[in-house]
Structure formats: C-alpha cells, structure tokens
C-alpha cells in the first residue's frame, strides 16, 4: 500500500473519449425542465464515485473498454444525459431553459487517467481527513457554460491506482437528484454485467423521463425572470475545509435512537432523525456561537413518495426540496438530544403533499434559480441518503470498497449520508467543516460516544490486515 505522503502525487490523463450513443427513437427533440430542475441551474455537478480493488482476471484496457461500451448503451436509455442545456430568450424578456437532444456533438465525456503513487489505502484514508487528490478523480469541476451546446451533462473518469481503480461520475444536477444519480449508476453497472456475461441487456429499472409539472400554470417551458445567465450563475470560491468520513455502526445507531425516544417518552423518532439531531448539536457546540444566535438544520428531502399520486419509482429527474428548521444555539444545547430530534421529526413530518404543492405554487409565482452555497444563519445541512443503493453497482468484478465524493457543492456544515459498507443498517457520514470546527468536533464527548471504529481493511479486501 502507498503511504499518505502520496497526497502530493498528480493524476495524469491517458485518453479522453466522447461517448455518443446510437439514436433512441423514443427521445424527443427537447426536454422541458420542471420547477425542481430549474432551481438547480447554479448548482455544481453531483460528484460521486466508487473505489474497487483490481479485478484479478481483467487488464486495465479491458476494464476501460467494458466501462466505455456499457456507458454508450446506458446513454441510449438515459438519453437526456447525452443532450445539452440550452437557454432561449423570450419575447418581452426572460429566458427559458431546456435540454436539447440530437444536436451535434451530443454525448458524455469519458476519461481514462492514472494516479501515480496512490493506492486504495490512501483513498480510504483511515482516521485521516479525506485526501485533496480525490477532486482529481472527477471531471467537470466548473459550472455549466450557457454560451452554447458545449458542456456535457455527464462525464466519467476511470482512474488507475497502484492496486485498484476508481470510477468517478460528474452528473449535472439539473438532470436529476441523488435518487436519479444512483438509478443511472446502477443501470450502467447492470448493463456492464450483462455484456460481460454475454446476456441480452434488459434493464430491470428503465428510466421514465416525462417531467412532473403542477397544474394551473399553462404548458411548459417555465419562464425565468432573467435577461442573462450572469444574473443567476454564482461562481463563489470554496473556503478551506476539512473533510472527513465517520462511521456509525448499526448497534451504535440503535442505541442513539433508543436514547432519543426514551428522553421524550416517544417511539416515533427515527434513526436518521436522531443522528441528524446529534450532528446539529455537536457542530453547533463546535462553532461556539452565542446562545442567542439562530442556528438551522437543513435537509434535502425527497418528494417522490409524498406526492398524490406518488411519482413512479423510476422517475428520472429532480424531485427534492430543501427544508429548514431553526432555533437558538442556547435552546439547542441546553435541551437534550430528543428535543432537537423532535424538531427534525416535525420538520420531516410537516413536509406533506399539501406542503409540497404550496412550495411549487410559490415557485411558479416567482420562478428563480437557487443559490445553493449561501445561508443567512449558521446551518448544518444533510444531503444524500443511507437508503441509496450504492454498493449494488457491480460492473462484473465485485462489490466496491468505498464510496467517495468530489469537491463540488461543499461548504461548512455540509453532511453527506452513505450506507455502511456491510449493509447492516450502519451509516457512513462525510462531514465538511472549517478546520477550527472540525478540531473541536473530533474531541466532542457526545459525538465520540456515538461514532464507531471503521470497517477493518482486511474485511474490505477479504484478507486480514490493518484497519481502514
């Protein structure tokens, strides 16, 4: 295994391909975007990837070809990902945005790269901050360029390591949320497995691309009140952050849930709500903000099953809202865990079909693009989900060793929840904080009483060895 000193190593690009699928006769010429999609126009790409050990029976060339050819077929089914975003000026002012399909140069970007001197142990970073070189494992760090049909909506990078490979995916957030991202990733892996086994490709979950629009506002497209992309594209610089992965075992989470419910004599607080409350409290304490200061918990919440009727499970697009609850730092820390957990519980419980419709109605009355990086108060924001099916993305050479993210959309107080590797209900939480806050969190007694030791490295690799 390489040492962590390899953080100074660079990632070299070997070759870049344009992956262009064959024409799908079901694809329209353009795809209008919903209110949930348009709100993401200023967001960075979703950047998530999977770490694998080297397959013993495949060369790097074979791996790259399998991934490239299966991506081509995946794009046939997920055809919006091979299009381009396009702005149109409206008569009388304002702009509309749609996905243009079938224009010249459509397709995804596929990068084959090598990370010199970097191994699996460096990527996993046992007990250490996540390495800065991870950002080099993902293409397309920049914002979308609206000057024309030039920016791919999907880019993939396959990076060779000393003893493994990393498959990183950059996915334009306008096209979909985390549910859609992992839907696509799993379908891509399913196609690769079928092709490797010589089987006919029949997707178990074919995507549905028809967008959801609320009634009473006429036909799409939705008109945005801007005259130029410069009015809504925000290119803020990312602060210096520490990023670290923390593991919470199923047993530890079960005890945390019991504690939260016993403290308030209820049985309705979920594991996720208890963990959210814990992190909100501990990070607020680490920030040392005044007692009278308002602090918030924010959650990217899924709408699909809350609509009436619910969206089809294979709906491909965005269907999330960012919801928030607030209190003062003093109230949050002077009360017990269950008090904070109940605030989170009520926030989620109140996000009903009627609440969703009200939010969409308000948006349609005043369409806009969200600034995803700014808040008027100190917040802790939870995104992603331990329910996402990340470790089923098997391309034909076995289960991934870890999930990691790129540098996009990160800010102080951002939390990303991933399912634990062993699939027993454990959760891995990526925490992004300013360095001075992370240093305090790492010593917080309430936090340390719940966080668990990471999965042993030998368990991941199927051998005995040091911890990861």
Automatic annotation (TrEMBL):
Keywords: Transferase. One of its GO terms (molecular function) is transferase activity. This is HXXXD-type acyl-transferase-like protein. It comes from Rhynchospora pubera.
